[in-house]
C-alpha cells in the first residue's frame, strides 16, 4: 500500500524524501494558515517567525499536493518527517482523507496544528503576519524565503492562495 503525505507548505518545495508520484490534492475541513510561531526553523524563541499549519475548520478546504513515498522508503520517510515536523509538540501527526485531482481519494499523513500548544497563534491579522515575516530569521533561514517559496510553488502547480499572494506582495514592499 502506498504511503501518502499531504504537502501544503514547505513540503511543496522541499519534501526531503524520495517522491514516487506528486498529485494536486484537497484536504477538506482544514485551512492553510500562518497560525504557528516558528521558534526553530524561521524564527527564534526571542524573535519568533511564522510558519504555515493546517488549522481545523469545517468551512474550508486546503489545496496542496499528495506526495507518494517511494516504495521501500516508508520507514525512513516517517522517521525523517517526525524529526522535521515534530521538533516541538506544536503539530499532531494525523492520517487524513484527501481528494486527488484525478478523482482518487487516499489516506495521507498530515501535520495539523495543536491549538493547545503555546506556538499556536491563529487569527493574526494579515498585516501583522506581514510585519513578523518581513523581519524573522531562524535556523533554516529568513521567514521571507519560506513565504516566497511556498507562494511561488503553489502558483507553479496552478493553485492560488489569495492570503499568501497578498502577504508575498506586502512583505516584498516592507523589505524593499
Structure characterization notes:
The model has no long low-confidence stretch (mean pLDDT 96). A 5-stranded antiparallel beta sheet has the order 1-3-2-4-5, with helices on both faces. The protein has a two-stranded antiparallel ribbon with strand order 6-7. It has one domain (4-175): Roll (Hypothetical upf0131 protein ytfp), CATH 3.10.490. Helix 4 packs across helix 5 (162-175). The protein has helices spanning 10-13, 74-85, 126-135, 143-156, 162-175, and strands at 4-7, 19-38, 49-69, 91-100, 105-113, 137-138, 141-142. The longest helix is centred in the last third of the chain and has 14 residues, at 143-156. The radius of gyration is 15 Å and the shape is globular. Helices cover 31% and strands 39% of the residues. With 176 residues, it is α+β, with helices and mostly antiparallel strands. A hairpin with a 2-residue loop joins strand 6 (137-138) and strand 7 (141-142). 36% of the residues are buried. This is glutathione-specific gamma-glutamylcyclotransferase. One of its GO terms (molecular function) is glutathione specific gamma-glutamylcyclotransferase activity. Its EC number is 4.3.2.7. It comes from Roseobacter cerasinus. Pfam families: ChaC.
CATH architecture: Roll
Categorize the overall geometry.
globular
Low-confidence stretches: none
Number of domains: 1
Computed structural class: alpha+beta
Question: Tell me about the biggest sheet?
Answer: 5 strands, antiparallel
What is the radius of gyration? 15 Å
Please state the average pLDDT score: 96
User: Could you name the CATH homologous superfamily?
Assistant: Gamma-glutamyl cyclotransferase-like
The arrangement of helices and strands along the chain is: EHEEHEEHEEHH
Strand line-up of the largest beta sheet: 1-3-2-4-5
Can you count the helices? 5
Q: Total strand count, please?
A: 7
The first-level CATH class name: Alpha Beta
The CATH topology turns out to be Hypothetical upf0131 protein ytfp
The percent of residues in helical segments reads 25-40%
Portion in strands: 35-45%
Report how far the terminal alpha carbons are from each other.
48 Å
Amino acid at each position: 500500500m502506498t504511503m501518502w503525505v499531504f504537502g501544503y507548505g514547505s513540503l511543496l518545495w522541499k519534501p526531503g524524501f524520495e517522491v514516487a508520484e506528486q498529485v494536486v490534492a484537497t484536504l477538506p475541513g482544514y485551512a492553510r494558515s500562518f497560525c504557528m510561531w516558528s521558534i526553530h526553523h524561521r524564527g527564534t524563541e526571542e524573535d519568533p517567525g511564522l510558519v504555515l499549519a493546517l488549522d481545523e475548520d469545517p468551512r474550508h478546504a486546503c489545496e496542496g499536493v499528495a506526495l507518494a513515498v517511494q516504495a521501500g522508503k516508508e520507514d525512513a520517510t516517517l522517521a525523517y518527517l517526525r524529526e522535521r515536523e515534530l521538533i516541538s509538540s506544536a503539530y499532531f501527526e494525523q492520517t487524513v482523507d484527501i481528494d486527488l485531482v484525478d478523482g482518487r481519494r487516499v489516506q495521507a499523513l498530515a501535520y495539523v496544528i495543536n491549538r493547545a500548544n503555546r506556538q499556536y497563534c491563529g487569527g493574526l491579522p494579515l498585516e501583522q503576519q506581514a510585519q513578523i515575516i518581513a523581519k524573522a530569521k531562524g535556523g533554516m533561514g529568513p521567514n521571507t524565503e519560506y513565504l516566497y517559496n511556498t507562494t511561488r510553488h503553489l502558483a507553479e502547480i496552478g493553485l492560488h492562495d489569495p492570503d499568501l499572494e497578498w502577504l508575498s506582495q506586502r512583505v516584498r514592499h516592507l523589505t524593499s
